[in-house]
Write a structure and sequence with these properties.
The chain has 284 residues and is α+β, with helices and mostly antiparallel strands. It has helices at 3-22, 97-125, 198-211, 220-226, 279-283, and strands at 67-77, 82-92, 137-148, 152-162, 170-179, 184-185, 237-239, 243-247, 262-266. The termini are far apart.
């Protein structure tokens, strides 16, 4: 092939390539330009409705529970050879200050009367016998809280009395039970329906419960008269959350050596006799 013919072939080839690239030749479709669509940045406006209602719950603060602190009566007379110190309860934190003052004054008056009785007895006895001239008559006591809530207070002051020259001391329980709504000092009958045979029921249950305690089968000559259905036989009563507790005096249902026995009678055993609107019906 001559140089001229070779050049012509090269030119023809170059033209053919150009025609294909520009779409003027047959076969291939021309390339479409690419189009880029930018995402929309606009959003539909939110639908604004009424604000949800706000519910405000108000809770009344809990009523403060009453508490007890110590109160004390103490004194003595060296010449008369006696001394006394009684610690007893004083209520605080009752909702009604007038009720609080009334209850505390009542307790203090009862304890004070016990002190007065002791001092009078010491003076009536006179000076101790020469054999015990170094002895002093003594009165002392402390208390127990059986129940204390917003509605009821049940307290007991245990008092020990010793007179110089005596063979042994004696003891007594002062029971205090109050409706804290009114300040009323409760009598045992306030717990029961008027006219109900509650004393007979307490007598029956007390005998059953004492009989279950060791030694009481041997002292029926104490138990039977000491549990007769009279108000005096059940004067030493207090309350717990679940029971009526009867504390018997020395010598009442047992000899001195057995102390002051007690029985705990469940409220459930007395349910049919309790006053429908009484303290235990309201607060239990």
């Amino acid at each position: 092939m001559t140089r001229r013919r070779a050049a012509g072939v090269a030119v023809a080839a170059a033209l053919a390539v150009g025609l294909v690239a520009t779409g003027c030749g047959g076969g291939a479709s021309p390339a479409k330009p690419s189009t880029t669509v930018a995402p929309s940045t606009s959003r539909p406006a939110p639908t604004v409705g009424p604000a949800p209602a706000t519910t405000t719950v108000t809770t009344a603060p809990p009523s403060p529970r009453p508490t007890v602190v110590d109160d004390v009566l103490e004194g003595g007379d060296e010449a008369q050879r006696y001394i006394y110190r009684l610690t007893f309860p004083k209520l605080q934190g009752l909702g009604d200050p007038a009720v609080e003052s009334s209850v505390n004054a009542d307790i203090r008056a009862a304890v004070g009367a016990t002190v007065d009785e002791f001092v009078t007895a010491v003076k009536d006895f006179g000076a101790p016998p020469p054999a015990v001239a170094d002895q002093k008559s003594a009165l002392d006591g402390d208390y127990e809280v059986s129940r204390l809530d917003e509605g009821l207070a049940s307290l007991a002051v245990r008092v020990s009395r010793f007179y110089a020259g005596a063979a042994h001391p004696g003891a007594v329980v002062l029971a205090f039970n109050y409706d804290l709504g009114t300040g009323h000092r409760l009598a045992l009958g306030d717990l029961f329906t008027a006219g109900s045979p509650y004393l007979a029921k307490l007598s029956e249950l007390s005998r059953e419960l004492l009989a279950a305690q060791p030694g009481f089968d041997q002292v029926q000559d104490f138990v039977l008269p000491g549990t007769e259905p009279t108000a005096d036989n059940f004067a030493g009563w207090t309350l717990t959350d679940n029971d009526l507790v009867i504390t018997f005096a020395e010598y009442q249902v047992a000899p001195y050596a057995m102390g002051m026995p007690h029985v705990s009678i469940p409220f459930a055993s007395l349910r049919t006799l309790l006053a429908p609107a009484g303290p235990l019906a309201i607060h239990n």
